[in-house]
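Entry, Tuesday afternoon. Goal for today is a structural model of the target with coenzyme A bound, before we commit to ordering more compound. Inputs were pasted exactly as handed over by J.K., no edits. I checked the ligand SMILES twice against the vendor sheet because last time a stereocentre got dropped in transcription.
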Amino acid sequence: MNSLNLVILGFGGHARSVADVALHCGYTHLMFIDDQAREGESFLGHPVQELAPQTIQNCFLAAGDNIKRHHQWKIAVQKGWPLVTIRSPLASFGVGSKLEEATFIGHHAHVGPLVHIGKGCVINTAAIVEHDCKIGDFSHISINSTVAGRVTIGRFAFIGAGATIRDGITISDSVIIGAGAVVVSDINEPGIYLGIPAKKIIL
Ligand SMILES: CC(C)(COP(=O)(O)OP(=O)(O)OC[C@H]1O[C@@H](n2cnc3c(N)ncnc32)[C@H](O)[C@@H]1OP(=O)(O)O)[C@@H](O)C(=O)NCCC(=O)NCCS
């Protein structure tokens, strides 16, 4: 167990991306914890277990879903598992920017200067979060999305793949922006917003 150096909570699609970045960061021994784990399951030889080991040195949350990731965070905090941040060496991170615990920055993401990213966030592969943005706790900025400068995004928000948020916009908590949408005005209430320009849709 001493050689184990990162425990990843979850074994869904996002957990594989987390594992890839973690291995690029220099972690060599991964273990996934997932209550759906099947006997003998592994990822490139890194085991998947139903139950957590007794001692955890470094822990990371790997649910792509914001609510599930928050639940993982609560468990980790309650058990006292030390949470790390995972930041791809292939990502760029601007001067004066700050990242809170348990946040993920994927390959080729770009975080501009003076950005604040809250805890438990996902800044996914090739996402851009430009200068002076504020991203609230447990939000997910999906692959290849663009958040222009001075945008403020609340907690538990989800910005879909390839979406664009115009500079200076404010988006409140728990808002879902669909893949490919373009947000050009502030969004002040939870809901699903789709299209160009993004409009609230009841699905
Ligand atoms: C918006 C979203 C959350 C809705 O998901 P859903 O509730 O499962 O909705 P459905 O796929 O059943 O689609 C419902 C309707 O909305 C339309 N729709 C879905 N997503 C859309 C989008 N992004 N833009 C425009 N229209 C969209 C569908 O065509 C469908 O229209 P119809 O009723 O006329 O056939 C989802 O489609 C989406 O965009 N998710 C983002 C996924 C993503 O970015 N993943 C990356 C993870 S890193």
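Residues 105 and 172 are 22 Å apart (CA to CA).
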